[in-house]
Structures are given as structure tokens and as C-alpha cells.
Amino acid sequence: MSGPLQAEALAIYGVVNAGRARLAVPIAILQEVIVPPTRFTTDFGAPDHVLGTFNLRGSAIPTIDLRRLLGEDTDGTPPGHIVILRTDQGRMGMGVDGIGSMIRSPASHLHRVADAQGEAHRLGTHLLMAPDSQDILAVLDPETLAARPGVRLLRESDTLGEAAVDDQMQRFFLHFDLGPHRLCIDIAAVQQIIPHPPIEVTALVTESFKGMVHLRGRSIAAFDLRNLLALPPHDMPDAPAHMLILGNTAMRCAISVNAVVRLSQHTDAALEPIPPQSLRLPKMFQGLLAQEQGDALLIDHTALLADSTITAACRLCQGIDDSAAARDVAGGAWSKLDVLSFESAGQSYNTRLSAIRDITPMPQTLLRLGDPLSLSPYTARLNNRLVPLIHLRTLAGQAQCAPAPQSLILLVEDEAGVVGFIVDRLDAIRHVMLSDDTKGIEAGNGGSATTPEAFLAGRTQQHVVQTKDKQMTLKLLDLVGLSQDVTNWLTHAA
User: Fold this and answer.
1) Which of 48, 122, 383, 393 has the most CB atoms around its CB within 10 Å?
2) How far is CA 37 from CA 40, 81, 93, 260, in A?
């Protein structure tokens, strides 16, 4: 029997905000995040999304405005931050509104949805589901970005002056504010950054241990970092806006912070020692990271996670979860299943992600080759082929109407060819365990329906699934079978 999902190696992504768009940037290419310079040297005749170059520690960094590249309306406002990307081909800057969060995700949460030669506006070929928010994010691909007009990279051979620094081991640091204190921590210790959730107060709270938060069905001990570090008392100017999930493979804990400021990358040589008498608990700090944008005390995450208060509270939460997880998932066979959830005309649907060949935005031009009242009045040219489109809302009994510009197309392929289903939006990609024993579960009629009104019901089946939180029944829509039903019906109707 296959049990609940096994732990996988996690990759780290920084989520950047660019207008309405949010992209996941692999931490391996994210060198640092800085405030914009006061001026850029502009390139004559460059596209509108090119900001120009600026001086970063002696290197001329070519920079674009990601918001303009994505077609977002900036109203003439400059970007709030510059993300410095570093690839094998070189470095570049990318103007964004800000860093939304940082997530860790296993490779199984990455899903390829298009070939590298897909729609021109795409900046990547994979989608990633944020573990907690269930948001579906596009993953930035540096090669696809570099192929866009006006995008240039500073080659490493052009920055020989930094060669000595590059030979040293670089570390990523997350800077954040805790009241009046500016602190930073090695990003290796940061599991996630999330909006501040409610804290469940327990009977064992202390000045340092504040209770528990619940994340994906797990209880995580929450702490007051000021007390753990023995920093001077202060009045919190604002309620904590974010929570950092710290830890390793053995344990996790949560700390509240007022603001996540930025990411930076430095060698250990950039750290300045702190006189021991300057701090009440000097063992909790590795040094001072002095920068033009503000000095930050570097927390020793190894010493912090080894603190007896943290380890004891984490063992308590682990015990609570182990007791609550005593449920029987034996007695049947289970297999892994990736589920795509989406909406159409206010209705929610689920389908197997493996059935989706591609997910593409609505093209600007549609061909009307069919009867306006038919199930498939529209045809689109996608990847150099004509694809019939089916508005899912019409199969649900809704009136036929023109697709909205923000609609999406789910492409599936059967024996007859490729068919596109028009949907309103994507909700989430979920990873569940599917019970192979579906006896006694209400099922659809497997495609025996003969009228369009019955196609949806005929291709919908309920399954028993196991999530990380609970066991439940889930309705799955067979889009491949549905496309066959519609294709057969249109063929006979003609």
C-alpha cells in the first residue's frame, strides 16, 4: 500500500509581484533584491520595457521593467525593487513591485504546460502551486526571458573585478524588521514566508512560546523572537504582517515579524564581528551585515533552533499531530494523483492534471467556423494548428456567449485530435492519494449520455482520496472522455 505523500527534496523560489502578475523565481538564479538606483543609463531606441543600465558595485547591470514586459499598466510609477538575476550566461536586473513571499516546493509540484516555443508572451514553461495559498504561479525561465527583445545580460567575462569575490561561497540572507530592529537570517533556515495567521493559544504559553499555528494540517509552535534573542523591550509599531516558518527536516517553528524587507547575497567576509558585551545573548548572533541600505544583525539559526524552549515546544506540537493523525488508511490500495481545479460560470470542477496537454491564455483572435448556437462555435489557431473550442458553460446549461479576454483554454487530446475547453480561471493544483477501491461510490455513466445536457454528469465520477489533512470524496471530470462525447455528437449532428 502506498500511504500519504512521502517527503521530497525541496526547491526554493522567491515570488515577485509585477502589477497583477506573480512569478516564482528559482533561488538559484536570484542573486539579490535591492532598492532601485537613482538613475539609469538609457539605451537609445530600446523597447519600452528596457530601463537601461546602472552601476552595481562596479558592474553595469542591464535592467528591464518586468511589469511593462508583461503588459501591465504602470501609470508611470517606477518599480519598487530591482531583482538581480544571475545565470550561467550572465547577470541582469528586473524591475518589480516587490517580493511577495518565499516558498519551498518539491519537484513534483512543477508541471510543464507548454513547449519552449509556445506563446510569445510567456516567460517560462512550468507552473508551480504555492503550498499554502493554492495559487498557481508561472516559474520564470531565464533562457525564455533572455530571448525577449531588448533583454541583455552582463557576461561574467565583463566583471573580472568581482572574480575574487565570486570564488568565495555566497550565502543568501533574508532581511526583516522586528519592531525597531533590522535582523537577517540565512535563507537555508527559512522554510516559508506566509501572511500572519491567527495563533492558537495553549495552556502552556510562556513569554517566548505563544501557541500554535496550523499549516497544511500540521501544528507549528509559534514564538516571540524578541524574547528568544533577549532583545531590548519595545512597542510594536504595527501588528505583525508576516510569519517566517523556520526549521529543517526534523522540526519547524514560526516567528512573527513586522515586515519582510529584502533578500541579499554575500560572503562571510561581509560580516562584521559584534562585541559580546553589546548583546544579552551573543551566542544567538553571527555578526553584523553592514550595508548602504541598513545594517542588520545576522541570527545564528543553528543556535536558535537548538534553543531548549523551541525544541520542547516543537516536540509538544509533534506529539499533538501524531495523536490526531491516528487514522486508518489501511485496507485499500492508494496511488498518487495530481488534480487541477478550475472554475467555469461559477461552478468548480476537478480533473486529472495528466489529462491536460497544455494551458494557454485566450488568443486575441478567434475564428467563428461553427453555428453560433452549437457547442463549438469558435476555433483558435494554437501552436500552428486549428483547435475547436468548447465553452464549458454551455455544457452546464448556461447561455452561449463570447469568451472573456481573461479566460483560459485547457487543451486535451484524444484519438480524434486536440480540443480546447474554455474556462474562467484556475483555482489550484492539488496532490492527493487516490483509493483504487471505488466500490459503492457514485459514478457517472461512463459516456453513455446521448445529449449535451447529460455529458457533464456522464463524465463525472466520485473517488475516495486522501489529502494531507483528511480523507474525502472528490468529483473528477474526465475531460478526454468529455471531448470524445462532444466530438461524436457534433459529427452525428452534422
Assistant:
1) 393
2) 7, 9, 11, 20
